[in-house]
Amino acid sequence: MSYPTPHNEATPKDFAKTVLMPGDPLRAKFVAETYLTDAK
């Protein structure tokens, strides 16, 4: 059974095909700025 999550209204099309999920926000920023284009 699925329950709504009022704090998260994201839909499947809100996510990219590939998602980077590092534990350190600064590492995410570094990877995005160094290796990716149009990162959001």
Explain this structure:
The chain is mostly helical and 40 residues long. The chain contains one helix and no strands. It has one helix at 25-35. The radius of gyration is 14 Å and the shape is elongated. The model has no long low-confidence stretch (mean pLDDT 85).
Summarize the structure.
The chain is mostly helical.
The general outline is elongated
Poorly predicted regions are none
Major sheet: size, sense and barrel closure? none
Q: Radius of gyration in whole Å, from Cα?
A: 14 Å
Q: End-to-end span in angstroms?
A: 32 Å
Helix content: 25-40%
How much of the polypeptide forms β-strand, as a percent range? under 5%
Tally of DSSP β-strands: 0
Taken in chain order, the helices and strands follow as: H
Q: What is the count of DSSP helices, taking H or I runs of 4+ residues?
A: 1
Helix-strand category: mainly alpha
Query: What does the average pLDDT come to?
Result: 85
Topology:
Blueprint lengths: L24 H11 L5
